[in-house]
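Hi, here's the filled form for the chain we discussed.

Project: internal
Contact: R.S.
Residues: 201
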Amino acid sequence: MIIKRFIEPPIENNNYLIIDEESKEAVLIDCSAFDKKIYDTIKEYGADLKYILLTHGHFDHIGGIKPSSAKVVMNKDDLDILKKANQYLAMFGADEVTIPQIDVFIEDDDILKIGNKDIKVIQTPGHTQGGVCYLIENNLFSGDTIFKESVGRCDLEGGDFNQLVQSIKNKIFTLDDSILIYPGHGESSDIGWEKSHNHFL
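And the returned structure, exactly as it came back:
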């Protein structure tokens, strides 16, 4: 399995392209801006983009989605936030984006597939009510739930710090310490490190 990170505007979001070498299926986790390098990489590996998996509906995670054959996936509890993306962009003086249509609504413990590999959905409300993480083998794509030695902000619509802490402790910290964390911003970490070094928790 190939994991490629693309750091995208408007605020240096991590977007992750995962390619299953055997099946040639790919998924993109978050899509902050349209980046030709992502699609060139898909072509380079002869892969097909199956899903765009959104960790949540904030404007900085959805701005690059264009109509394609890939199904756009999100939890329904973030629909209202998704629809308000351009209101938030206006606050930053940024251009409006086309609000994507969600093709697949996912819930906690749902399983999607990339080739023969499971993509497990772990709902982790707190940053937003519809925030989710995606677990693929030993890799957790955490969006804005947890960062290296930090956590997502909770002062925006749908945010709740106590709920976020419980999501991390009850959902993420019950996973194996060796699991790698690929967050929506910043550098990667692992669960064992965050248990010991994340002072928010």
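Let me know if anything looks off before we file it.
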